[in-house]
Amino acid sequence: MVDSTEAATAAGRVRISDDREVATYLEIAEAREPGRTLNPAPNAPEAVVVIDYGSQYSMLIARRVREAGVYSELVAWDAPASALNHLRVKAFVLSGGPASVCDPGAPTLPPYVLSAGLPVLGICYGMQLLAHALGGRVAPSTQREYGHAIVNISEPSNPLLSELPVAMPVWMSHGDRVVELPPGFRSIAQSDNSPVAAMADDAGRLGIQFHPEVVHTPQGSRLLRNFLFAVAHCNGQWTATAFVKESIETIRRQVGTGRVICALSGGVDSAVAAALVHRAVGDQLTCIFVDNGLLRAEEPERVVRTFREHMSINLRHVDAGDRFLSQLAEVTNPETKRMRIGETFIRVFEQEAAQLGEVNFICQGTTYPDVIESAGSGSGAAAKIKTHHNVGGLPKDMKLSLIEPLRNLFKDEVRRAGKELGLPDEMVYRQPFPGPGLAIRVMGAVTREKLAILRAADWVVMDEVKKAAMYYDLWQSFAVLTDTRTVGVQGDFRTYGYCVALRCVTAEDAMTADWARLPYDLLAQISSRIVNEVPEVNRVVYDITSKPPGTIEWE
Ligand code: XMP
User: Fold this and answer.
1) Which residue has the higher pLDDT, 182 or 1?
2) Which residue puts its alpha carbon closest to atom 10 of ligand 1?
3) 4: burial class by Cβ within 10 Å (0-12, 13-18, 19+)?
4) Best exposed site among 75, 201, 383, 441 by fewest CB in 10 Å?
5) Minimum-distance ligand 1 atom for the alpha carbon of 341
6) What is the Cα–Cα distance from 551 to 545, expressed in whole angstroms?
7) More confident site: 21 or 497
8) Which atom of ligand 1 is nearest to the CA of 387?
9) pLDDT digits (tens, 9 = 90+) for 205-224
10) How far apart are CA 130 and CA 361, in angstroms?
11) Which residue has the higher pLDDT, 352 or 46?
């Protein structure tokens, strides 16, 4: 008897060489994790599950799958099978990851993946893991393969490789490689350094050593589509329209005759969340716009105008600026700022709710990246970077139940849903603005004076970026008030003023970002206007850090 298949195959004591021995693998897996079978709820939506081994691209795989019209979720490799019960799984994708299957304690294959008998696509570490678990052999490569490579397809008739060029450019990033195929598998593509650049068996279990999810693999989306439709036979009906329809039904079921309040910030996420809930339960929804005193210039007026006047949504405007500022007094730690803001936010809601009579739910525009970045996926692989206050700042004794209709959506999907709901472009394509607002763009303690300085500088940035017709090309563009003062000269006088940093980034989602290559003339115009129009500022610098290693916000 062996302790685990991984240990057994690594030690060479169990060779899985035919169906009988695969059954042995499953018996061992059952002993390790009883109840490993999938048990989908009735009417669960079709989904392809990406098992997360900690690759920086895991999230991207899920995005690409959804772009192909198939709903996808990321699941931590050590999550129990029951974590998938809300889905009707059609196939699994095993992500890449930093570990080596040769290492003791390396992340393993969840038993339900093989026992489900569904198609599996292992990517990089995922392929190595599949090979290892099924009795193949993985070993460190003498030559690390990183960057562009060409794979030569030797089995073009394989459905995974259908209509792909025989010599296909791909992106590789691996140290280990498969040196011996598992029984029943064959190599279907090779590269200079990988005799097994892709492998397949006849049961829809596939592996690829390269990364189809990144743009550097030009035919990557085609390959993923092949997997989804030619191998896994997905129906591909995940669209914004379907999402909106399903969400409305779910919200109606969840809310019943209850009353909902919605945390409206003016940003696209909460706007779409509110519009969805409004479509589902109409006047049972009251939106509460908490003016936390941390918004950009003219924002509060704009929010009230849009929602109350144009969308006819019940809206209460709460001016809570003083309360937030007193909670932030002398707070310099970014995480403490976030927690205080999150808590105050919820408390204000609870007070408003008390005035509305019985209220049962609070709706928030939390999106998938918020959840993952706050390490909410449960994957031990994802480090916590910041507490996004939608997720992490909720007090434990909160009395309202949460509705988060966008919790599983990426930003572009939120926008598509917004369009579907008929929201105006000006709102749907608005640049993101963080829940904690300007508090995380004022370095150090937040004061009224500093907020006013930042607002004035930020106004210039927004105005100039819009005039240059770059607003919609940039993911975000804003000013940061640093805690540094520097010496300058204006007229004949020495000045000692604040240094403002300009932060403009491009991104596909906020998981990664690059600093925007703004034209020098635009930079010059922004800088000159800020130092001329904001007397407290005498220096402007441009932040040229990508994410990673930086983050988009400074705190
Ligand atoms: P970072 O700074 O983590 O930001 O690179 C990624 C994206 O998230 C926004 N952001 C937040 N949004 N609550 C939010 O709703 C928050 O606490 C928060 N912190 C950052 C940020 O503006 C960027 O778009």
Assistant:
1) 182
2) 434
3) middle
4) 383
5) 17
6) 8
7) 497
8) 17
9) 999 999 999 988 999 999 99
10) 44
11) 46
Within the chain, all domains assigned CATH 3.40.50.620 are found at: 242-428
Which residues are CB-neighbours of 336 under 8 A, at least 6 positions away?
A: none
CATH homologous superfamily, domain 4-231: Class I glutamine amidotransferase (GATase) domain (3.40.50.880)
Atom from ligand 1 closest to the CA of residue 547: 5
Whether residue 424 is preceded by a cis peptide bond, meaning omega within 30 degrees of 0, is no
Q: State yes or no: is 33 an active-site residue.
A: no
Phi, psi values for residue 202, rounded to 5°: -95, 5
Whose CA is closest to atom 16 on ligand 1? 388
**Token output for 58:** 């895991």
Question: Hunting for tokens 């939120």 — which residue is that?
Answer: 414
Active site (annotated) includes residue 124: yes
Which superfamily does 242-428 belong to? HUPs (3.40.50.620)
Closest CA to 362 of 370, 350, 374, 351: 350
Q: Using CA atoms, how far apart are residues 44 and 42, in angstroms rounded to an integer? A: 5
Whole-number Å distance, alpha carbon 61 to ligand 1 midpoint, is: 22
Long-range contacts of 4-10 (CB under 8 A, 24+ apart): 4/28, 4/32, 4/108, 5/29, 5/133, 6/101, 6/106, 6/108, 6/132, 6/133, 9/132, 9/133, 9/135, 10/102, 10/132
The pLDDT tens digits for 92-130 are 999 999 999 989 899 999 999 999 999 999 999 999 999
Tell me which fold the domain 441-542 belongs to: GMP Synthetase; Chain A, domain 3 (3.30.300)
Average pLDDT over residues 152-169: 97
User: 518 has which bridge partners?
Assistant: none
| pLDDT value, residue 385 | 58
| Residue-level pLDDT at 6 | 41
| Residues contacting ligand 1 via CB (< 6 Å) | 338, 386, 388-390, 432, 434-436, 476, 510, 547, 551-553
Point out the ligand 1 atom lying closest to the alpha carbon of residue 342: 17
Comparing CA positions, the residue from 265, 198, 191, 193 lying closest to residue 430 is 265
Indicate the top mutation candidate among 264, 478, 552, 555 to test ligand 1's pocket, ranked by most ligand atoms within 8 A of CB.
552
- What residue type is 78 in one-letter code? D
Mean pLDDT of the chain: 87
pLDDT band at 392 (very low <50, low <70, confident <90, very high): very low
213 assigned to active site: yes
State pTM to two decimals. 0.70
Where does the chain hold its CATH 3.40.50.880 domain(s)? 4-231
State in Å: Cα 300 to ligand 1 middle. 20
Give the per-residue pLDDT at 494: 95
